[in-house]
Amino acid sequence: MDIPLTEFEPSGDGLVPPTPPPLSEQLPERVVMCFFPEIVDGLGETHGARRIGAYSRELGGHAVYRLVHDGVPVAVFHPGVGAPLAVQHFEKAIAAGGRYFVACGGAGAVRPGLALGHVVVPDAAVRDEGTSYHYAAPSRLMSADPSAVETAVATLAAHDIPHVTGTTWTTDAPFRETPERVRARREEGCLTVEMETAAFLAVARFRDVRFAQYLYAGDDVSGQAWDHRAWTTATVRPELLGLAVETVTRL
């Protein structure tokens, strides 16, 4: 099938270059993209962070915070949900000087028995979205940087945190996760489903920056009916942000 997504252009920049968000100071090289709005909003109180700017209102107006972990400055912001929006935040952070990135967020459980809050380190993503195809040649999977995955896993091991490493399914259409598609992705080996990982991995490779990701098993789509599991209030969320901050200082 001849569709535009297969027409990857590997060279050159787009007509509209990514530009940094307006900041009061230089963005740290080490950046965490955190999908937990309540955790990001509380960084001043929990981590002594200070706000150094924000993305444009057109992109959601997400604040950018700066904190220090073991003497290393780290930026933290919410990148927005879905690959097109999250990649715009990612690209602008790279343009601002970010070079080492860790994302942390929730994902739907595709594999049965993946308990709420269980940590997943993606080492590959099924590319069932569109954004990644503008940054990498067409393929079924987008692979993660093995050394970045190793660093993420080492941080978890140092804290004795149970986890699993494997493939995630990145989709643009959460309301089209039909039982048949979920079954097919599970048979393919996917542990989780989310909306950004494949694109993040493609951008990181295209822009030559380091990237790792933590997911936690949130809602459950592995059965005959959707189980929300109150995943947006899972107690693992603040802990995962702390692990992401620690990991990004080690990349």
TrEMBL record:
InterPro entries: Nucleoside_phosphorylase_d, Nucleoside_phosphorylase_sf. It catalyses: uridine + phosphate = alpha-D-ribose 1-phosphate + uracil. One of its GO terms (molecular function) is purine-nucleoside phosphorylase activity. Its EC number is 2.4.2.3. Pfam families: PNP_UDP_1. One of its GO terms (biological process) is purine nucleoside catabolic process. Residues 55-222 form the Nucleoside phosphorylase domain. It is an enzyme of class 2 (transferase). GO terms for cellular component: cytosol. Residues 1-22 are annotated as: Disordered. CDD domains: NP-I_spr0068. This is Uridine phosphorylase. It comes from Actinoallomurus iriomotensis. The lineage of its organism: Bacteria, Bacillati, Actinomycetota, Actinomycetes, Streptosporangiales.
